[in-house]
Amino acid sequence: MTPPMLLPLLLAATPFPAPAPVALDHCAQAACTTLGEVRVCKCAAPNAQSVDLLVVDRPAERRVIWPTEARPGVVTDFAVQQADLDADGAAELLVASVMSESEGMRIRSWHLAVVDGAEDVAVQFVAHDLPPDWVKGTALFVTEWTYEAVPKQPEPAFVYVGREYEYRHGVLVPAKAPVLRRRYTPEFELERARALAQSEDGTLPGRAFLAHPSVTKGADELPRRTMRVVLSALTLEEPDYGLYGEDAEGALVSFSSDGQDGPLLRLGDTKARRLFPLRYLPKDPERQWIGRAALAAMKDTQVTGLLFLP
Length: 310
Known about the structure:
- By secondary structure, the protein is mainly beta.
- The chain is built from 4 helices and 24 strands.
- The strands form 4 sheets. Strands 19-18-17-23-24-20-21 form a 7-stranded mixed beta sheet.
- The longest helix has 13 residues, at 186-198.
């Protein structure tokens, strides 16, 4: 049995050094970081027909590659940590890479990946305004900005949301911690602007933002109107994908992780009443999803893209 005083040390994530520019074949620009025998690189596509990549090289010629989205001319804007999240003795790699930064509010979108320690797979998802301490112990704290309806108000509110997950062998599992929500008010705007001016790496103190007295704690509401859909097919063009199903009459229902080929997909867990992160892609998604019945949210006669799995 592990002594209690050693547990925090065992659970603490180990950061990699800051990435440094390097020259790599087939990359317009590249940057890498290395810790021990593990190297992680970000590679900007050399031409319009190629894609930006994140690449992990481990001992025994173990390599994991997944497409990402890089900002033009920037390849050092990623960070890597190492921690054994699923307690199997093989440390996972946690890679956080900037995808884009919006105009105006300068909201940063981060492409996150958990590279399994035992298998050569990467679980992927997206976050906004990522906290530097998004990994704490075995919990992953994933934040996003979204619009949410407000009772008796004609317009939706702009809200910063934090959800916690556990990583288990290639999938994310909703944690017991409540979903945290904070409306974007003039006070929050000033607080965030100060934090943004002080941030050196583009991360923001999301946990502190969501410790404010105005924060509400709860779950994600299940849709009031739903349609039963049996998931039947998946098209995968990482980092995006399409998910397809059939309704009770056998009609095709389409969803898209980027909203290009159907309603913008957002997956949720019915039992936990918890949405999964944006653009969530687990290990072996076909095995995870295909053949399962799910509840698709409806507005009037159209599916909205919100899909809750049992």
